[in-house]
Automatic annotation (TrEMBL):
InterPro entries: DNA_Rep/Repair_Clamp_Loader (IPR050238), P-loop_NTPase (IPR027417). Pfam families: DNA_pol3_delta2 (PF13177). One of its GO terms (biological process) is DNA-templated DNA replication. Signal peptide: none annotated. This is Polymerase III, delta prime subunit protein. SUPFAM superfamilies: P-loop containing nucleoside triphosphate hydrolases. It comes from the Bacteria.
Length: 304
């Protein structure tokens, strides 16, 4: 499901219809806002195929972080070997005689070597090739890479657009409105909540937990951290689960900050304190990708 950001859709409709596609585009915006969905939809149009057949299309290449075979965790960056793979594929002629399309996920995680290798591809682009770089933080890309890409910034999507999109997908109208309300402008999150009732239930569990945390003392919050990592509890089994929790808390933190900004009276936290807490939650989520003690990380988050 792709909804919202219609100006970006209209741009590419014109570019594809007129045959004036560029070689490299950067899609920048929050995770689950639609960057990958649109990139794949555009790939189907460029390659004249369907979404169901796209991943097996010989001229479509999707690059994402690899999993470390020893630890089972995602590697921290896009490796030089992956960048060379892109270069190798684009240097060869397409299998079907038309375009080749590459979608690079989390492009901001290119390391120095892989970024420089990708830069060479952008400096000498192959004919009939299109590269989509997807990034939550495009500022982390090399300036020389950014300068060779046309960047599109994805905005948060309205609740109505998300709800209408869910209804089109088959969701009941009232449930669609409920889910759109808690998705914070991100269609991908809305789809996940609709298709996975466990994730939706976890959202409400974390909302209840959050509303208690805000009014607790630090010592009481440490008890919450203890609960999260209790070996007898299966609520958190891995890093991905903890990231989901931090994501929910970040959304609720934003709601708290907006309410405080609009309020004429003092709240449990000032707008500045809310902002600092949100920054702390974001930092914690980013640090989870590193080899860091998760319990200590959560205790730091709860220190406000």
């Amino acid at each position: 499901m792709f909804v919202g950001n219609t100006q970006i859709v209209e741009f590419f409709k014109g570019a594809i219809d007129s045959g004036h596609l560029g070689h490299a585009y950067c899609f920048a915006g929050l995770n689950q806002i639609g960057k990958r969905t649109l990139a794949k939809q555009l790939a189907t149009q460029i390659l004249s195929t369907t979404l169901e057949k796209l991943d097996s299309h010989p001229d479509f290449h999707y690059i994402e972080r690899l999993t470390d075979e020893k630890t089972g965790k995602l590697k921290k960056d896009i490796s030089i070997s992956q960048a060379r793979e892109i270069k190798s594929r684009l240097q060869n002629r397409s299998w079907l005689g038309g375009y080749q399309v590459v979608v690079l996920e989390e492009a901001e995680l290119l390391n120095e070597e892989s970024a420089n290798s990708l830069l060479k591809i952008l400096e000498e682009p192959s004919a009939q090739s299109v590269l989509f770089l997807l990034a939550e933080n495009e500022a982390a890309l090399l300036p020389t890479i950014r300068s060779r890409c046309q960047t599109f910034y994805f905005s948060l999507v309205s609740k109505k657009e998300i709800a209408d999109g869910l209804v089109i997908e088959g969701c009941e109208e009232e449930r669609a409105k409920e889910i759109a309300e808690i998705s914070w402008g991100r269609p991908g999150k809305a789809i996940n909540y609709w298709r996975d009732s466990e994730k939706l239930n976890n959202y409400y569990l974390e909302k209840d937990r959050w509303e208690k945390i805000i009014y607790q003392s630090f010592s009481e919050r440490l008890t919450v951290a203890e609960e999260l990592f209790n070996e007898k509890s299966d609520f958190i089994k891995n890093k991905e689960k903890l990231q989901e929790i931090l994501d929910v808390w970040t959304i609720l933190g934003r709601e708290g900050m907006l309410k405080q900004i609009k309020s004429d009276t003092a709240g449990i936290l000032s707008a500045t304190q809310w902002s600092q807490l949100i920054d702390s939650l974001r930092e914690a989520k980013n640090l989870l990708d590193q080899n860091i003690n998760q319990r200590l990380l959560m205790e730091k988050v709860l220190l406000f």
